[in-house]
Every structure is written in structure tokens, then in C-alpha cells.
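sry for the spam today, last one i promise. C-alpha cells for design, 239 residues
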């Protein structure tokens, strides 16, 4: 494992050195090739110490630096970043719409959003009690859409994304928290109460929603027994 990491790190040193030789387009291609190889290698090694993740992080940093210098075609770059973020298993280029905003510019960001919205349109709406058989892939596109909403769409767009999947009562808490953070206390309380109504035998964790209710003078419903266990993100494959 250490031998692979050391050899890979040396190769990455060589790729980074090309930045000083004004070979930024080659650096972009080499970084993307190396990222794929490291991702493949993670499948075969024990990365409990995070060493392989360090290689991925460094390659992404170099890739971003090269893109800023080379200014590649924004639409082509947007598609590659989107495809990687949508289908990847290792968080490579995660939150690309934020990290690469300057490089993509208006044209690239528009194309990235178009790709995301097309993929999102194929995702079915889930209501309380519905099953979610493809949770991991759904998570990726949902995260992309949430990032787009947070980047410029505002609260209404974020709520529209989140409420496409109300199969977990935790989503109601997430929406209530987002409303509260945006200063929309009444909307936060309304979403908390929807969650309470949908899961009467569970206890809502104390905190943001309970405080929202108190601030609005309507804390009693938000203090009923509603246990919103946090499902969190689907586990990435073990390194």
C-alpha cells in the first residue's frame, strides 16, 4: 500500500511540475486520467488511513489550478464534472458547481444546471412511507440539485428539491432547519408540524425545530414525541 502511494505521489509531483511549463491543458487530461486510476486502485487496497483520499484531493487541487490557467471549453468541462459527480463513488469533484464556478462562467454553469435538471427530472417523487430502492444514486443527484439551489436558487428552490423525497421523516426536519436558517420561522414550524403529523410515534430531536416553535409561541406541537433518526448519507464504499 505504501509503495503504491509513494509511486503515485511521485507521479503527481511530475504532473504538477508541468504547470510551470505552461502545459496546463495536458495537466487537465493527466489529472483526470490519474483520478480514474486512483479510484480504481481504492477498490483493491485498504485505505483506512485515508492515504488514497489524499491522492484524490491533491489531483483535484492541481486540476482546478490547471483549469483556471487553461480556461478549457466551459460546456465540455461542465459535462465531465457533472458526470463524475453524478456517477462517482469517491466524492471526486463533489460540489463542482461551487468549486469551479469561476472557471465555468455563465455558459458552463448554465450547461451544468441543464444537465442536472434533466437527470433530476427522471427521479421519481417519494412520499411518506414510499420505498427508496436506489438510494445511493438518488443521493448524488439530490446533492447536486441542493448545491445548485444553495448557490443561487434560494430557499424556495431548496425546499422544492428536498420535498421530492419525503419518504424519511428526517427530510421534514431538514426543511424546517433550512427555513429557520433563512429566517422563515413560520415556514420552519409548518414543516416541523408536517413531520410530526406524519410520524406520531417518533420524537423530534430537540434543537432547531423546538426553538423555532418557541420563538413563534407555538412550541407545544414541536415538542411532541417524534423521533427523527438521522439517516445521513449512504455510506461510500470502504476505502
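last one done:
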Amino acid at each position: 500500500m505504501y509503495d503504491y502511494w509513494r509511486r503515485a505521489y511521485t507521479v503527481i509531483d511530475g504532473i504538477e511540475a508541468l504547470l510551470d511549463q505552461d502545459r496546463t491543458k495536458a495537466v487537465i487530461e493527466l489529472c483526470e486520467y490519474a483520478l480514474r486510476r486512483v479510484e480504481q486502485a481504492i477498490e483493491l487496497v485498504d485505505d483506512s488511513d485515508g492515504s488514497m483520499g489524499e491522492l484524490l484531493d491533491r489531483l483535484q487541487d492541481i486540476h482546478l489550478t490547471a483549469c483556471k490557467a487553461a480556461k478549457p471549453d466551459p460546456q465540455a468541462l461542465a459535462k465531465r464534472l457533472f458526470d463524475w459527480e453524478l456517477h462517482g463513488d469517491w466524492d471526486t469533484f463533489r460540489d463542482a458547481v461551487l468549486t469551479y464556478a469561476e472557471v465555468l462562467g455563465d455558459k458552463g454553469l448554465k450547461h451544468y444546471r441543464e444537465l442536472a435538471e434533466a437527470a433530476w427530472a427522471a427521479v421519481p417523487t417519494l412520499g411518506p412511507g414510499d420505498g427508496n430502492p436506489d438510494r445511493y444514486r438518488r443521493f448524488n443527484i439530490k446533492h447536486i440539485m441542493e448545491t445548485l439551489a444553495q448557490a443561487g436558487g434560494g430557499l424556495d428552490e431548496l425546499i422544492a428539491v428536498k420535498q421530492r423525497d419525503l419518504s424519511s421523516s428526517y427530510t421534514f426536519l431538514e426543511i424546517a432547519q433550512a427555513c429557520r436558517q433563512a429566517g422563515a420561522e413560520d415556514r420552519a414550524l409548518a414543516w416541523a408540524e408536517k413531520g410530526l403529523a406524519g410520524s406520531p410515534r417518533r420524537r423530534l430531536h430537540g434543537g432547531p425545530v423546538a426553538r423555532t416553535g418557541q420563538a413563534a409561541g407555538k412550541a407545544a406541537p414541536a415538542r411532541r414525541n417524534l423521533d427523527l433518526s438521522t439517516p445521513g448519507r449512504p455510506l461510500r464504499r470502504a476505502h
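The chain is about 65% helix and 0% strand. ok im logging off now
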